[in-house]
């Protein structure tokens, strides 16, 4: 497999019947516990006692695949969930406890065939060598559908779980102070190094390194394995990887970004950036800033998708959706607010909004279901058919790999290219 | 009435990156593709094995400053592949080696707890200690530990992980949708650990898993290793597959348990074992000879000699006599990332002994390596192999075996189809899984987080 390029990339399969029109958008769904609203777990559909079971996650990802979505992301963190931006909240009225996202993705991979699997990885406290082989392995077990969402953590409590570094205490209002800026810039620089090390490790085996040459007794051609010799400010990695180059060559790297520092990370290092515009103008400004960062990083020619995140309450009529949101807000004790715009309405209204926002130059959307048991099927069985009617979404999976679905070609190996 | 027959425990080790794995056989498949692992796991489960085992490597091996290219090279990530295998099996235990040096307790504990949840209670951890600075070059820690601190860190790592596993009792999640109470206790998962190697505190974020804690395996034959296993492991891997050595090891390790207030059935002894099957014993012996020739090519024989000699021996003829020069006793620079190197603690004595044996038997270098390094544990017809395995277990040379086939991924198929039914007929191996978790298969109690003495003091 590692030596075989994906069989059907959109660019090489111009068949009009199976390829969505040029106006097709990409859709992902962000999975997190019972849903993104803190009271989601109290809905009858929520199954809150099953959040830590394989069956629960298999059901969600299978439903997303039924809707032909490009991929799911799986949230994660190295501490208990919290309603507070930077520290634990000690609450007992919301879902607490979660499983490792990479392992959830690996568990559902053999049960699905087409959908991309993009777990969250915390760069601040984990090892690029371990994550590189874990995501490469996810790519093997899913036969080419792996990605990762890289995240940083400046939480003091999470740092204390590792005991290797400390961070100053701060609130969301302090993000623009010089001291906090210095911390976050450093964390995102480290994350960029992390992604670079991970990407080099994926390339550290050439695709045809395994030769099984019985005549000479050589299993590999060692000249096709490469030391990556990554040296950064926070870590260094020698390489090569222990795991051969994964089926996609480079699994898909993504990151959520709200402001300039993370926009730089997206521009420098990612294949997909998730952003949180609240209107068309804001979306345009964000897209411009990321494109500038991309150009500044010398990647103007690379495909870099920008997806807008929206939290969604979807029902067949707008009043029902609004009433549901009010009911959940009242259960939670306060109106829901978050980083992303909250949409409340029908799938058709959401389709209108997506097509409008897309004019800012967005490639697609990552939808955060308010209540996953309710809003995910609304996406797959309501929104998707609506977008298909408008010729704005695929009618069948047209590629076998996540890169294929996203129109990303399988990249050449940087080390192979260097030795030609 | 004689004493009841001991029940045999069987596990399967996916063939790894050493010369035991015959990649040149036309039947050898991929050792990376998931289909290989799925086939292997399904075979083991069809045969009602206790568990599947995966070893780990964190740096590609080198010899003479170059990546070693004669054996299978490369493997997938242990956690990701075991968790994916949970999707294609229902009962088989899933055991992985995870190093305690190049990981942090919080992360490893949450990975094992996640695997245990996602497999409905089938996770096991083979705790190993560091290799060296060579491996450390792939990690932030960069580090490695002096020999004396390896077990000290491993012990504290395991104790810390147990504190994290035990930080949830298992009844905290009430998820009362009407009352709006998700957690009974806001401090669920709280822990504080201040020790020599780790100073960490906070809240563990994976609630208690089906097995409470993963089953703990330990490998390692030093006195420290045996003591570490006696103190806290559920099973120990050994490499003694002959009857006498096995019995000596068994007696020694089981004898250490009482000191820790533990009984003989709380620590299983499971040697690694290879096998070659034939329709008749004679056919199996012939096949075994062929397999050994495949495992030890001339080039492989020279490389194995270099583990001991610590010199470049590429100028020697593998079909000729052993080198008459002595091993280089300086720092070992020829072979790196090799566990075998540490097995020869006195290279001069080993070299002398090998020369004498080769001269006495008229062995070439390759003959010597074949004779000393690649003996199969069980060779014979299915009836002979079943009989031998059973007799070893009944004679307390082990509690069972971890079988390592030499072919990926079909090397277990014949054993499952021919030997297992004979063991079942003898009444010494299960015909169905009696329980659902790995602890059930191994006859181990489920740990209670509240039991006195169970929690390690911080």
UniProtKB/TrEMBL annotation, chain A:
This is FMNH2-utilizing oxygenase. Residues 56-325 form the Luciferase-like domain. Belongs to the NtaA/SnaA/DszA monooxygenase family. FMN binds at residues 76, 120. Keywords: Flavoprotein, FMN, Monooxygenase, Oxidoreductase. The keyword Oxidoreductase applies. InterPro entries: Diverse_substr_monoxygenases, Luciferase-like_dom, Luciferase-like_sf, NTA_MOA. Residues 1-20 are annotated as: Disordered. The keyword Transferase does not apply. It comes from the Bacteria. Pfam families: Bac_luciferase (PF00296). GO terms for molecular function: monooxygenase activity; oxidoreductase activity, acting on paired donors, with incorporation or reduction of molecular oxygen. It comes from Streptomyces avermitilis.
TrEMBL record, chain B:
Keywords: Flavoprotein, FMN, Monooxygenase, Oxidoreductase. FMN binds at residues 97, 151, 222. InterPro entries: Diverse_substr_monoxygenases (IPR051260), Luciferase-like_dom (IPR011251), Luciferase-like_sf (IPR036661), NTA_MOA (IPR016215). Gene3D superfamilies: Luciferase-like domain. Residues 24-395 form the Luciferase-like domain. It holds the Pfam family Bac_luciferase. GO terms for molecular function: monooxygenase activity; oxidoreductase activity, acting on paired donors, with incorporation or reduction of molecular oxygen. Belongs to the NtaA/SnaA/DszA monooxygenase family. This is Nitrilotriacetate monooxygenase component A.
